[in-house]
Known about the structure:
By secondary structure, this protein is mostly helical. It is 65% helix and 5% strand. The protein has a six-stranded mixed β-sheet, covered by helices on one side. Helix 20 (329-341) packs antiparallel against helix 21 (345-353).
Amino acid sequence: MRVLRQIHARLLTQSMPIASISFGLCKIIGFCALSPHGDIDYARRLFSQIRSPNIFCWNSMIRGYSQSQTPSKEPVILFRKMVKRGYPNPNTYTMAFVLKACSIVSAMEEGQQVHASVLKSGFGSSPFVETALVNFYAKCEAIVHARKVFDEITDKNLVAWSTMISGYAKIGLVNEALSLFRDMQKAGVVPDEVTMVSVISACAASGALDTGRWVHAYIKKQLIETDLELSTALVNMYAKCGWIERAKEVFDAMPVKDTKAWSSMIVGLAIHGLAEDALEEFSRMEKAKVEPNHVTFIGVLSACAHSGLVSEGRRHWSSMLEFGIIPSMELYGCMVDLLCRASLVEDAYSFVQTMPIPPNPVIWRTVLVGCKRNKILDIGEIVAQRVLELEPHNAENYTLLSNLYASHSKWEMMSQVRKEMKDRGIKAVPGCSSIELDGLVHEFVMGDWSHPEANEIRDILRDISKRVHGVGHEPGISDVLHNMVDEEKENSLCEHSERLAIAYGLLKTKEPTVIRIVKNLRVCGDCHEVTKIISAVYRREIIVRDRVRFHKFVDGSCSCRDFW
Length: 564
């Protein structure tokens, strides 16, 4: 910037034609706004001094602000100013840059206004703008709008296909993402590493291991460059699909590992409950002189939490602060989770009260879960009040408070909470589990019998119930804390979504195929015990990824050692 300022000064002091000076100033604005070595504030000051900036200057400023480390709606504000002035007229680059800026800050309303401007100006057929529109709607999770724009593109290029696939992957629509990937292949468009990262991410989000393995084989067959980002995506996919050993193989084979790669491996080991391995990888990362970031410490603290390593977790928290990392809300949440899982609920409550930033609902809810698990009513009621003030329409908050009262047999208080939920029209999020078979992800919701093979699934569930009772298991009806008779509670447990998915896995696969389940909620205690028994009596390995971690059931035991 020092040299650039000297050039700027020379432009202003030398006798030169106005056109030459304007051209030079525009180039300086472009460098300051867009270069990593530039200065967006300097560019803005210079921009404001030009009486009639040309379209290059406007586009540079709009794009520059969209690349800022602190994203804002400033690009949209600039665009509106330009349109209001009436000169210069925006071009296709302007529209694309503004749409990208809207996608970064999820400015749905402003983006739709820009879309209207695109249609009015006749830029709707520009491939550059079309792709920007798909990206905007996909990033804002308006996937129907994104697909509509995508379908209207007559000549879809690689970027358009990749963007649409990425949009599906982002919101977990794995079947749609993979179906579109197949359509892309039929259209003769050759994917690149960017496309494959999106496809692999879709597999990771849904736990679709078989499809992920096929995609990995496809990458090798097509000789697609496995760069750092794609290799990291593969590590993440195998870890999230429950094959942590393969994730480790891919990771170890990487010639270069950056912070993101190390963090992915550490987080993967942590969610599998392999605390010692995760901490060992962290030590290797330090020895390799790779600087950790907040994601790395999320993995480290999660590893400690899943194994009850409180002292170790506290030591790493101090180490994190020494690295100069300012704790994010998620990191505070990890520490609270560590204390609550170790039944140190009072310590967790004190820790939250001393946080320098206001705790978010997730942190308060973590403490409330700890209170429910340890049957601590006094702190639980205080925490519940806090979380309900922050999230009065979240069903999970009411359910936790209701279950806390039920665990103390305070049925009247429980009924009052349930009544408040009903009066407000709040419904609990149902348990949902999925299983991938033959490249298709099947979803099951608690108590939902709409599956075309529902009768066969019922038969398997009856056989499971018979075998489980045969080994002396008594249903943990305390996990169903509604005020109902025991028989109704037992039937309710049998319809939990993961049991439906496991039953379908038993129906459609044979030994030694591993049954892999993904669940949106935490596995309840009774389902955990029943799954251990199923793994023994059916001689099947079952891997369940719930909202918190992985559970690997083999021969009647679980990898979490009943600590989760």
